[in-house]
Design brief:
Structural class: alpha/beta
Radius of gyration: 18 Å
Number of helices: 11
Oligomer: single chain
Shape: globular
Helix content: 40-55%
Order of helices and strands: EHEHEHHEHEHEHEHHHEH
Largest sheet: 8 strands, parallel
Length: 289
Amino acid sequence: MKQLIVNADDLGLTPGVNRGILRAFQDGIVTSASLLVTGSAFEEAVALARHNPELDVGLHLTLVEERAVLGREALPTLVDETGRFPRTSGEFIRRAVLGRISWDEVEREIAAQLARFQKTGLRLSHLNSHQHLHMFPPVFQIVRRLTSRMDHVWIRNPAGPWRKSPGVRMGRWVQRLGLNLTCLSARALHGSRVPQMPDGMYGFEVSGRLTRSALEQILREIPDGLYELICHPGEDDAGTRRRYSHWGYRWAEELEALTAPETRVVLKKQGIALTSFVRAFGRGNALSS
């Protein structure tokens, strides 16, 4: 049986992203969203989630680019003078390998982000991270420890196909291979104690650029099992463009693809049942496609 969780990342990033995710849930195929508790539109996102209780909400953990929950005094090795994390995962990993990041600080910040989420009163259905840093083995160990006593919290498994798909840029495919290897390493360290995770993830190669044709190609490749498709719907508004143009995301194009009637036709033709993290615990409780 093919089951697919369609998860929208970056809920809380900006009001335009919030509106896009809500529309992709109400009028499209999105079944869950990941909340950025450090985002400038965090409080608005929480209000939207409360008014749409059928939308699964999880934590979009961030250790790069955004501002930390804890301040510079609490995180002297992790943030700069303005309280911001390293700009990229590459910079974070490089500093970590050189011993310039305190793992105690990382754990305190992750715990603080979890606590901020829990204060919203929303049910935490899953956890993932900006630039998939939760699978970096030392971070994965902390995430596993902090979530092990929580009920029914899924952790994103970013591993995906090893084969290069048509149209995927070579550089992005190499990044995919590196991410797959990182996932194998993190999971191998924990053996049978690995937390609840889907079978894999699709959408990495076209992250931020999930056009209708790219989406339809992915849906034709989904195998039997429980998989997650990541997406980034939003509005092409001036505020989002001004702050995050360097990402190169096409939020409005993704929204169009996720809400297109033709997308549901492909889902039905491929025999894919949409589900959510909460429903996936029953493994068989699916939404209609």
